[in-house]
Design brief:
By secondary structure, the protein is α+β, with helices and mostly antiparallel strands. The chain is built from 7 helices and 14 strands. Among the domains are: 102 residues, Elongation Factor Tu (Ef-tu), domain 3 (Beta Barrel); 87 residues, Four Helix Bundle (Hemerythrin (Met), subunit A) (Up-down Bundle). Helices cover 41% and strands 25% of the residues. α4 packs antiparallel against α6 and α5 packs antiparallel against α6.
Length: 299
Amino acid sequence: MKRLALRWILPAVAAASLLTGHIPQSSRAADNAPPPQQQGTANNDANLQKAFTLPYKEYKISFPTMGVIREVKIKEGDAIKKGDVLMVQDDREDRFELTLLDLDVNQYPIQAAEAKLRAAEATFQGKDRLKNNGGGSDLEWEQARAERDVAKVQLEASKQELKQKEAKRDKQAAHVNSMTLAAPTDGVVKELINDIGSNVDPTKPVITVVENNPLLVQVQVPALSSLQLKKGEKLRVSYDKKNWKEASVSFLSPEADAGSGMRMIRLDLPNADGDPSGLQIFVELPDKLMAAAAAADGK
């Protein structure tokens, strides 16, 4: 009878426990156990240093001469390639002047001087033969020789004048070319300072262009541990701590901040995707750097 009663009583007690919410302690402990942590998460976060990106270079572009802007071929935000035409000054009068100078560069004066020299040479040869045969006068011979020598000098002067005309023409051509503003590098137009109709001053920029490939990553690291880094060394960087890229150390500040004990370094980050500069980014410091920082703190 006792065995039979136990067979009926134990299931009833268990059912009552479920209905009243009573759970054995061992089950509660299992349910409240914290989830397992991802391996290396804490260490990786400890190695991360907040940083930000900068443009590789910023160009303040200006015209070399004064003038009025006639064409603007870009707008703010445009991606440009080296050599792209950005702006053009009103160069019509200057081009007319270039045409006149170009027309003046010809061989006609030299050809005329060469013909004059041939005539003077022929005259002199005739006078010279006549003198050798006992005829003519010394004065006629001297005049013929002088005219021949003058014709030679005039030919050389004509050649020199042609070089001067070519130089003036080339100078004007360079001036006309300078009135077309071309991009000095690949980049993005950050600011359009002047527009069509503006009378520009060569001492003031008309366009600001930023070069964002590569980007510069500027980060502060513990000064003593930074001695472990060398230019060209690769560090991992990420905007979201998920997608990582490699950047190389390009600059280590020659002066650390004594107050904070930090030192600024810059990394070159390839940026073929054209990400903007000025974003926050995380730099993963290598273990050797963290170990050196920990050793310094322990002293």
